[in-house]
């Protein structure tokens, strides 16, 4: 299921063995909950299959942050819709899929690249033990995708090989354009990648560049 602190509980659920077999989804909306996928730039509601920010409304959604009117106004609109900050989409059967956090998207030229999508792809490489993708500042593009890679023991994988592996499988704007090899990926106690630590370390670290 899917939920967040601001919803005070889970807002999706999976019923029965057939639904739990659906790969990658967090389930369908729970009873009494409303949801829509919204274009983060135009604010327009999007149809099934299109990615945008997930907005939620229902009885378990919070009324606001205590003592912080500014944060409340940024998160809840006047009609009670909660802006989750998550990039998501619904399929035609009403199943919800989480793509990434909006604030973690890499802004490459006019495109938005979800780091989690590239991480998932790189984790399928037989010589990669762990990986994280972050934005790297670029004068021309604004930001480019950079991968921090932990090789499996005995691997001699190169940065060029990592970039070529991704380039064969994604649109040109999603290509990894810089690679650094590390011993481990910094993560929180909950297992979440600490991207800020990696971004802060970029300037002092040698890397392979496309």
From TrEMBL:
<dbReference type="Pfam" id="PF13193">
    <property type="entry name" value="AMP-binding_C"/>
</dbReference>
<comment type="similarity">
    <text>Belongs to the ATP-dependent AMP-binding enzyme family.</text>
</comment>
<dbReference type="Pfam" id="PF00501">
    <property type="entry name" value="AMP-binding"/>
</dbReference>
<feature type="region of interest" description="Disordered">
    <location>
        <begin position="1"/>
        <end position="29"/>
    </location>
</feature>
<dbReference type="InterPro" id="IPR025110">
    <property type="entry name" value="AMP-bd_C"/>
</dbReference>
<dbReference type="InterPro" id="IPR045851">
    <property type="entry name" value="AMP-bd_C_sf"/>
</dbReference>
<dbReference type="GO" id="GO:0016405">
    <property type="term" value="F:CoA-ligase activity"/>
</dbReference>
<keyword id="KW-0436">Ligase</keyword>
<protein>
    <submittedName>
        <fullName>4-coumarate--CoA ligase-like</fullName>
    </submittedName>
</protein>
<feature type="domain" description="AMP-dependent synthetase/ligase">
    <location>
        <begin position="1"/>
        <end position="65"/>
    </location>
</feature>
<feature type="domain" description="AMP-binding enzyme C-terminal">
    <location>
        <begin position="117"/>
        <end position="192"/>
    </location>
</feature>
<dbReference type="InterPro" id="IPR042099">
    <property type="entry name" value="ANL_N_sf"/>
</dbReference>
<feature type="compositionally biased region" description="Polar residues">
    <location>
        <begin position="1"/>
        <end position="11"/>
    </location>
</feature>
<dbReference type="InterPro" id="IPR000873">
    <property type="entry name" value="AMP-dep_synth/lig_dom"/>
</dbReference>
């Amino acid at each position: 299921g899917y939920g967040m602190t601001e919803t005070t509980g889970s807002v999706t659920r999976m019923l029965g063995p057939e639904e739990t077999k659906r790969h990658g989804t967090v389930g369908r909306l729970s009873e009494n909950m409303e949801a829509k996928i919204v274009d983060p730039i135009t604010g327009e509601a999007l149809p099934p299959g299109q990615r945008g920010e997930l907005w939620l409304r229902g009885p378990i959604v919070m009324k606001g942050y205590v003592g912080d009117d500014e944060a409340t106004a940024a998160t809840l609109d006047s009609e009670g819709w909660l802006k989750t900050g998550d990039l998501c989409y619904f399929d035609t059967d009403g199943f919800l899929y989480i793509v990434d956090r909006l604030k973690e998207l890499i802004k490459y030229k006019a495109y938005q690249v979800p780091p989690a999508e590239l991480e998932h792809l790189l984790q399928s490489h037989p010589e990669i033990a762990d990986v994280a993708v972050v934005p790297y500042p670029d004068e021309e593009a604004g930001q480019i995708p950079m991968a921090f890679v932990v090789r499996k023991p005995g691997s001699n994988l190169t940065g060029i090989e990592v970039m070529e592996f991704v380039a064969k499988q994604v649109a040109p704007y999603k290509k990894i354009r810089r690679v650094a090899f590390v011993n481990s990926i910094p993560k929180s106690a909950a297992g979440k990648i600490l991207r800020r630590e990696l971004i802060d370390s970029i300037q002092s670290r040698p890397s392979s560049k496309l």
